[in-house]
Design goal:
Chain lengths: 326, 187
């Protein structure tokens, strides 16, 4: 008869210790990644990139395994962006421009994070900086994703404790300077939010006002006129497309690579005058993006992304033309 | 510096001061470095509101530039032999310059100085009339060493790179009006 009391005596101190243990950053991030996809929520988000502020109304709805994310600008120029099933639609009501593109490698407008956080561990250390911060008066964990090399930016993510949603993120370059910030100024969790037809507003426009700017389709990277075999550690090919960009009708090869948190675009097209002004200027910065352009035989190569200068240079050097393609 | 002076500088920068008051304030500013500094600050704020980027100069910026100019060695070129034309060349050129500047100022801003006394600061002719040196305007510059405009192609690349941030709207090009670059590294 003494056994039950003994069992309680053992369990009590153990559970008390578990409650005092510092939270594990990886588990918090995994919970966040799940909450971002499974909850219905809406609010107002402020994005600061390269010192420019954009304020957007944000909606995330999920129903019967369909997930929809929408953002509408609150200031001119008005636009609405919808993501659903790996497809992103853009609508510009003032000009009637509508665009759709396939972006299956991205999960969220708010924050790119892989579902398996373990993928990041080879290149980032995950640290819990503070487990009692407040963002928009909501208690939050502050998590740091610190790169283990100089080839990527570090990030801080504030995750709201009750629902595990990211309420604020900051991105820092290798010198510690902030390059990007996202912050909810208002956040509501809902039991249900409607999945809307992204095209409804566009169809409401007069036919002569509708402009379908472009559509993109995924193409097998093996068909590209170049290779990217010597990418910096952690970066791998995510997506390849060939699209036409006005005014020329020639295809522009567009490869997107990533390391789980950061994406880099590689563009290759037959030489025109468009990159001639840039080729001697080294790596350049616009907002939070760095880019570099150079001629590559009879092509123009441009590498662009939210990564350090060194990474842009390494990626540009890794691009080699296939000998039978030019 | 009293509140009334501050108020007058603010009105002056906004162009709300009449001509007599403006000239009186200018005279006051030339004898008061504190007022001059305040004026420079207000001008800098005005520039910052109108532009995305500016560089604040220290209050003694113009003084230091003047000192450096004065410290430059004087280059004495060999004197050519004078003739009748050269004797009158300088006065003629000066008179012609004054006439051209006067015509240009009258053509460009016939009503500006009367209606907006702060335009005095950008009109050398008008200022020379009151016989004083101008206070130095803040240097408006970008925060980086070199900048150039974004080409439409780079804008298209940005848009394709992250369409949730960069829109194809033409106004977006204006918003992303500058690209900064360094020559530190070449891949």
């Amino acid at each position: 008869m003494k056994t039950p009391f003994l069992l309680i005596a053992i369990i009590l101190p153990t559970s008390s210790l578990a409650a005092d243990e510092p939270p594990d950053g990886k588990q918090i991030l995994e919970k966040m990644a799940h909450a971002m996809h499974s909850l219905n929520y809406q609010g107002t988000v402020a994005f600061v990139r390269g010192g420019k502020l954009d304020t957007m109304a944000y909606y995330h709805a999920t129903q019967n395994n369909i997930e929809q994310e929408r953002m509408s600008s609150l200031n001119s120029p008005l636009r609405e962006i919808t993501r659903q099933s790996g497809r992103v639609s853009h609508l510009y009501p003032a000009t009637g421009i509508h665009m759709t593109e396939e972006r299956p490698f991205e999960d969220s407008f708010l924050l790119n994070i892989p579902k398996r956080i373990g993928e990041l561990e080879a290149y980032y250390s995950v640290n819990v900086l503070d487990d009692d911060e407040k963002v928009a008066l909501l208690p939050a964990y502050a998590i740091e994703l610190k790169p283990k090399d100089q080839l990527r930016y570090s990030r801080k993510i504030w995750i709201e404790k009750n629902n595990s949603l990211p309420v604020r993120t900051e991105t820092f370059d290798v010198t510690g300077q902030q390059v990007e910030e996202m912050s909810f100024t208002k956040l509501e969790i809902k039991d249900k939010l409607p999945i809307l037809n992204a095209m409804e507003q566009w169809h409401g426009l007069a036919e002569d006002k509708r402009i379908c700017a472009y559509k993109t389709k995924i193409v097998d990277f093996a068909t590209a006129p170049f290779t990217a075999d010597q990418l910096p550690p952690g970066f791998h090919v995510l997506f390849f497309t060939q699209r036409t960009l006005k005014p020329s009708d020639q295809p522009v090869n567009h490869l997107i690579i990533g390391d789980g948190l950061s994406f880099v675009s590689i563009y290759l097209e037959h030489s025109q005058s468009n990159t001639a002004n840039y080729q001697s200027n080294g790596v350049q910065t616009i907002g939070s993006v760095r880019f570099y352009s150079q001629p590559l035989d009879n092509y123009d190569l441009t590498v662009m992304g939210e990564v350090p200068e060194e990474t842009i240079s390494l990626i540009a050097n890794s691009i080699k033309l296939k000998t039978d393609k030019h | 510096m009293n509140e009334e002076s501050k108020q007058k500088i603010s009105q002056f920068v906004d162009g709300d001061l009449d001509q007599a008051e403006a000239i009186s304030l200018l005279k006051e500013m030339y004898s008061s470095p504190e007022l001059l500094e305040k004026y420079n600050r207000y001008q800098a704020i005005g520039h910052a509101l109108k532009n995305d980027a500016f560089l604040v100069t220290s209050s003694d910026f113009s003084a230091r530039v003047s000192q450096q100019i004065e410290a430059e060695p004087t280059i004495i070129a060999p004197q050519p032999k004078s003739n009748f034309f050269m004797l009158y060349q300088k006065p003629c050129a000066l008179a012609a310059s004054i006439a051209i500047v006067a015509v240009l100022v009258h053509w460009r801003e016939p009503n500006t100085i009367a209606t907006n006394p702060s335009a005095l600061l950008s009109s050398p002719l008008a200022l020379s009339a009151i016989g004083h040196q101008l206070p130095a305007a803040p240097v408006v510059s970008a925060p980086t060493d070199q900048q150039q405009p974004v080409t439409p192609r780079i804008h298209q690349y940005l848009q394709a790179h992250n369409s949730s941030i960069y829109s194809p709207d033409a106004t977006e090009l204006k918003r992303l009006n500058q690209v900064a670059y360094s020559n530190k590294k070449q891949p």
